[in-house]
Structure formats: structure tokens, C-alpha cells
């Protein structure tokens, strides 16, 4: 397990704030299992996940002429890699609420880069990394393939608004078959600095979240959304 790798870029300040926006069922699953769900990389909506830019693909094709398995490895590798996405932002994001939650319900976990690094417990059978995503022009720019995890740290420029940091788990050294993804062990109290409840949610929903967290025995700090502030006029 390698949560730190000199080839991977991360914000230098460990107090850099990151967010994860999720619905109540995924939040409950996190608290009940003490495990963080990670999606299989080829199950994301973006079909380019884990693939290469055009300049890199052309180079790989040349290398694969004498070794067809070389190209096939990269295609099947996507089925062995799982990703947990986090959003870098000093403040909560109205756009992220819109994209990742529905019906004015959902939560946002506020954490930091340092907390992510401490919260993820080492997995003996998997390689794990935390890295910041690079946003590039897939028609012109090159994605290095010195390490097999690099394709999962690059996305198209049209996704720049995500400002994404990723926890990446590579299970290719094990016999584990990923279906939708996998769950990894985490320290909940380290992972979660604060919880924000959807700014447009009703009072009964807010009370439900507070009661659920208390009943499950977590002393987590629950904040009112900054987007819910009273209008001053």
C-alpha cells in the first residue's frame, strides 16, 4: 500500500479542504460499515476514465505491434482499479450540490488532504494512492504511462470544475473481482471533519440526520449549510 508517491501531485498544504457530496443511503453505508465505497473506474459516466490521450495511445499502439498483450493489459486494467472522488474547495459548492444530490436531500462531508491520508487504513493486498487530477487536452497532450495508475489521474479539460482529488485502489495484484467497486477500511472520525446537510432540505430531514449520527454513536460535527444563511436586507 502506498498512500504517498513522489510521482503523484497533491496540494502541499495538508489542511487543504476537500468535500464529498453524497446521498443519505451512501452516507449511512459509510457509517454502518466503517468502509468507504469506491467505484470501479470503468463504471463512471465519463467513458474516458482510465484511458489515454491520443498522443499517448499512438505511442502505446507502436509498442503493442510486437506485443499485443501490452495494449490489452491497459484495457482490462480499468476493471481492477477503484476510485473515490473528492472535490477541492475552501467553501461548499452550489454546483456540486446540484450535480451529486437530488430532491433537496443529501449531505456533504468536509475533510482535508491530511485527514484523507490518515483515515485510509493500509490494505495489505492492494496498492493505494491519493492524487490530484490533471485536466488536459486529450487530443494534444501526453499522459505518461511509467506507472499504471497514471491514466486515472488525468481527465479532459471539460471536467476542470470538479477540481478532483482521488483515492485510487489498484487490485490487480490480487484475485479479487470487482463488480461495481469495493469498500476500503477507513477511520470515520479522522475522515470526517464536519457534515453539511443539503441547504434546501426540510427540518424533518435535518433532524433525521442528527438523530441517526447520534444513535450510531458518532460525535460528528454537523453544520448548517452556508448557502442557507438568512438574507440581509
UniProtKB/TrEMBL annotation:
Q: What is the protein named? A: DUF2971 domain-containing protein
Q: Which organism was this protein described from?
A: Flavobacterium chungangense
Amino acid at each position: 500500500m502506498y498512500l504517498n508517491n513522489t510521482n503523484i501531485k497533491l496540494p502541499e498544504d495538508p489542511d487543504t479542504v476537500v468535500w464529498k457530496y453524497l446521498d443519505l443511503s451512501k452516507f449511512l453505508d459509510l457509517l454502518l460499515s466503517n468502509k468507504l465505497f469506491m467505484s470501479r473506474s470503468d463504471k463512471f459516466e465519463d467513458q474516458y476514465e482510465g484511458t489515454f490521450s491520443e498522443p499517448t495511445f499512438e505511442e502505446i499502439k507502436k509498442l503493442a505491434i510486437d506485443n499485443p498483450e501490452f495494449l490489452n493489459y491497459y484495457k482490462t486494467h480499468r476493471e481492477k482499479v477503484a476510485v473515490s472522488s473528492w472535490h477541492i474547495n475552501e467553501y461548499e459548492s452550489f454546483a456540486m450540490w446540484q450535480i451529486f444530490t437530488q430532491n433537496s436531500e443529501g449531505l456533504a462531508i468536509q475533510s482535508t488532504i491530511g485527514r484523507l491520508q490518515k483515515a485510509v487504513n493500509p490494505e495489505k493486498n492492494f496498492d493505494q494512492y491519493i492524487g490530484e487530477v490533471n485536466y488536459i487536452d486529450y487530443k494534444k497532450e501526453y499522459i505518461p504511462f511509467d506507472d499504471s495508475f497514471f491514466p486515472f489521474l488525468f481527465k479532459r479539460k471539460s471536467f476542470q470544475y470538479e477540481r478532483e482529488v482521488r483515492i485510487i485502489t489498484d487490485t490487480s495484484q490480487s484475485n479479487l473481482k470487482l463488480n461495481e467497486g469495493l469498500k476500503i477500511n477507513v477511520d470515520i472520525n479522522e475522515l470526517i471533519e464536519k457534515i453539511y446537510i443539503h441547504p434546501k432540505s426540510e427540518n424533518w430531514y435535518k433532524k433525521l440526520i442528527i438523530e441517526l449520527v447520534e444513535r450510531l454513536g458518532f460525535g460528528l460535527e454537523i453544520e448548517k449549510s452556508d448557502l442557507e444563511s438568512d438574507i440581509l436586507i
